[in-house]
Amino acid sequence: MAKNLEGQQVMILPEGSNRVLGRDAQRINIAVAYAVANIVRTTLGPKGMDKMLVSELGDIVITNDGATILEEMNVEHPAAKIMVEIAKTQDKEVGDGTTTSVMLAGMLLKKAGDLLDQDIHASTIVKGYDLAAKKANELLGKIGIKVGIEDKDTLLKIASVAMGSKSIGVGSSKDNLAKLVVSAVTQVAEKRADGKYFVDDELIKIEKKAGGEISDTQLIQGVLVDKEIVHPGMPKSIKNAKIALLDCALEIEKTEVDAKIEITSPEQMQAFLAQEEKMLRDMVEKIAATGANVVFCQKGIDDVAQHFLNKKGIAAVRRVKKSDMEKLARATGAKIATTLDDLSSKDLGSAGEVNEKVVAGEKMVFVENCKDPKSVTIFVRASTDHVVSEGERAIVDAIGAVSSAIEEGHYVTGGGSTELELSVQLAKYATEIGGREQLAIQAFAESLEIVPRTLAENAGMDAIDALVSLRAKHKKEGGEHFGVDVFGSQVADMKALGVLEPLKVKTQAIASAYEAAKMLLRIDDMIASKGKNGGAAGKGGSPGAEGGSGGMGDY
Ligand code: ADP
Ligand code: MG
Questions:
Q1: Are residues 539 and 486 part of one domain?
Q2: CA distance to 82, 186, 512, per residue, from 451 (Å)
């Protein structure tokens, strides 16, 4: 509402909409973002805790994954939604480092709030953060260490660190899982014309089944299809499989037009059925003529066709998912035929073996031992559904980490060592810049300390002691890799310990945290219309509502 010249009220916004202005808007957004960051904070690192999330329908998810937690939480405040976006971007771009990026954004905003309280204008803070983010990126470029696809040792370490913070990845199964992930990623990695590698993670299929143990998890050089062979008489184990992939039904298609056939004698009926049978037999003959001994069909297979296939000794699977068909094509080298007339022996793919196996009481078809397959499957096993799901998330994180290390070509040391090194160097840079921006750059530098600090706290260490000793190490020559050894409860050289992470996790986490912080800081007016989010801008108004004690800001 505003007053016009005659002192009358003019309505600008519809009745019931909510408006928050200026410093209040900033204060609320900062409080909300900080509260969100604090929620995921306790999960950071191998000693982080898990969260149990219960959906409206009562489904339970137990996880440690930042992106999953935020997604399942269904946050409502617009600023909180932006924080969720950070996690999603990080997940999409790298596949790991989601908790880190959200925590960093929360801390950048918290520190910005302190500067606002000292009457430093938001645009000055944004400018300082801008300088700091650029400098951080430049420094990361120097800190990064080269890694190639042939450097299996380093890749294995990167995989196990990425998995390490999920409960599943801790313990003896970790090494085995890391090996599976590295083999899978290097198998599907594709060398581009410019010499760089590209990994399409769609090509690594993850199939999961409860029952068994995490150590039963295996890498299949091919595709695992969660279907059964259609006919009990068909072979269940085929060596040197010649595989036909069909995107057409082995059935008599019903005509589009409503047609009526009048049959007046048993002979006519006989002839009609015989005709149908002949059509199906012809279809099977066409397949058999190519030399195929296994058929995967995306559509249905008529009972009569099954019978003929069985007689020819051809194993068949029907109603295979489209995505599985594509993976089968990549793994076996087959071409998907859209009509039977198209199918020739050239289109067949091959696999060392095709086996139908019973897993946890269900039949599944394993297309295995493909030669140099461009698509592989990781079959995740564990005792219960919850563990299997967390196992899958750990493997997805590791695939993301290893892929980005191969694609980007550099790694850094973890345990908060890289963040601390950046922090120390940025603090130096702040004094070089001087002026009002200096304070903002300083704040940026301090924000980065949240990573080693939280790792230490979650490991039950004295965080202040750890930070003091880490800062001292990093100021000396040769101390740049010192971070928090969460298992040894001490500060240690992360390079020697083998705690390695892909460089991209860090560049992306800092970039997305900074972008989100900048976006929220520039808002000085929030107008929420009455609809679904009616008054949302006003919610979360109590600063640090969920931040709770032991918050991040007691610097
Ligand atoms: P995110 O979602 O950000 O990946 P995680 O819970 O996976 O969060 O924790 C990642 C952090 O844990 C990184 O900073 C990483 O360096 C650290 N970390 C992982 N393994 C170790 C380890 N063995 N020792 C110390 N720090 C570790
Ligand atoms: Mg992680």
A1: yes
A2: 21, 30, 16
CB of 144 within 6 A of ligand 1: the answer is no
pLDDT in tens, 307-325: 999 999 999 999 999 999 9
Q: Which residues pair with 485 in a beta bridge?
A: 490
CA of 98 to the centre of ligand 2 (A): 7
Contacting residues for 308 by C-beta, under 8 A, at least 6 apart: 280, 281, 284
Beta bridge partners of 220: 377
| DSSP per-residue codes, 433-472 | H-TTHHHHHHHHHHHHTHHHHHHHHHTT--HHHHHHHHHH
Residue 64 alpha carbon, nearest atom of ligand 1? 6
Residues 354 and 261 reside in one and the same domain: yes
Using a 10 angstrom Cβ sphere, with 0-12 exposed, 13-18 middle and 19 or more buried, the burial of residue 525 is exposed
Question: Does residue 36 lie within any of the structural domains?
Answer: yes
Contact 510/133 with Cβ under 8 angstroms? yes
Does one domain contain both 378 and 447? Answer: no
Cα distance between residue 81 and residue 88, in whole Å: 10
Same domain, 102 and 127: yes
DSSP states of 186-255 = HHH-EE-TTS-EE--GGGEEEEEEESS-GGG-EEESSEEESS-BS-TTS-SEEEEEEEEEE-S-BSPPPP
Q: Which domain holds residue 501?
A: 2-146+413-554
Query: Tokens 């519809």 belong to which residue?
Result: 14
| 277 and 290 co-located in one domain | yes
- Cβ atoms of 500 and 412 within 8 Å: the answer is yes
Mutate to test the pocket of ligand 1, among 43, 44, 485 (most ligand atoms within 8 A of CB): 44
Question: Which tokens is 235 given?
Answer: 């072979």
Which amino acid makes up residue 551? Answer: G
Cα distance between residue 509 and residue 514, in whole Å: 8
Q: Are 177 and 217 in contact (CB under 8 A)?
A: yes
For residues 192-200, give the mean pLDDT: 89
Q: Is the CB of 99 under 6 A from ligand 1?
A: yes
Residue type, 468: V
163 belongs to a structural domain:
no
Q: At which of 393, 408, 423 does a domain end?
A: 408
Q: Tens digits of per-residue pLDDT, 450-491?
A: 999 999 999 999 999 999 999 999 999 889 999 999 999 999
Residue 265 CA to residue 459 CA, distance in Å, equals 85
The DSSP output letter for 372 is S
For residues 229 and 362, state if they share a domain: yes
- The residues that are catalytic are 65, 98-99, 397
Residue 436's pLDDT band, with cuts at 50, 70 and 90, is: confident
Pairing of strands 525-528, 18-21: antiparallel
